[in-house]
Give the backbone structure.
Amino acid sequence: MNFNRVLYIILILILLIAASQAIKSQEQNSQDLLTLAYDGIKLRADLNEMLANWISAGEWARPCGSIYTVDIGHLMIYAALTGNGNLYDPLREFAVEHLILNNPSDPYTRGFVLWRYNPEFEPDASGTTEALRIAEGLWLGGNTFSQPEDIELSLMVLDGYARHAYVDQGVWMIRNYFNLGTRAFANNSFLVDLDPDFISLVAEATGNEELQKVANLSYEQIQDAVTPAGLLYDIIQPEILTLVPELSVYIFSPNDIIQISNAYTVAERAVRKRPEIGQNMLHFFRVRHPEVHRYYFGSSGLPAHSREANLELFASVVRLAVYLEDHEVFAMAFSKMVNRGQAFAKNVWEPKLYTTGEILLALHYGLEWIKTW
């Protein structure tokens, strides 16, 4: 037999085997995806039932006795996205009555949002991350349920949020809180106090130039917070520049240690104009999966502690992967989240409302995206 013909036949056989293996792999991946989707749907149903029981029973507070605004905000967003008026209405009523400041005798704090509520104590401070989540919940709810008054409330809250802006040492920032006792703002900010994607969406819809300015400056600050390893530093504290005016060290994390769930929370809210930040962070997750830790050094990308990543991290990665259409990382994170979520549903841990909101939001975006595959 001709030698070239033998080589040709061998090559054909190799290609056929490879094609067969690829088909089997694709079929397995499809089956794995179907199983994951089924498990996700079951988990969503379980969590929805648990959540409805907690809300109706008034089990809103964390073990310390306070109701945390970020918990309420996440659940309002989820209720609006899914059209669940039975969940949205009591949360919205509580936010308006207890969380959003609108006292005619104190117009300066109009639209500020408390970071937590406890009926046994006087309100102590506003919260800016909290304001963003409540504003988003109201904005989405107003559109979903055709309630223009909620859109107006959302704009009032965003106006209050924007009044936390300040320039210190030439650095723009959203100050972390306003102390209602001392009537003074904090002198620092956390990166999680920023959500330029949501703010820019509202600015475009309303033509609000001030909000667009806040969004643009927020994008710039998030860009400035990128670490050498591709993560995001946590804290903005311009007063440090009075010690080292020649060095741009006003954005940092203590001892260079980053809790990466915070970093991914910020990245998923900056994909409209800074998608490369999220893409780099998805790659960071991809190359470390399945051994993903909770804390990393921002400079080297090495683990700062052996503790495993928390469930909230996987929920954030799921949402970020959906926004940036990264199928590979999505499958990795969705599987982890569903497995951890199933454990949570069987043996609930605190903070239960916050954790439930994180999971349900990721399940919503994830399951909707799977439908398009």
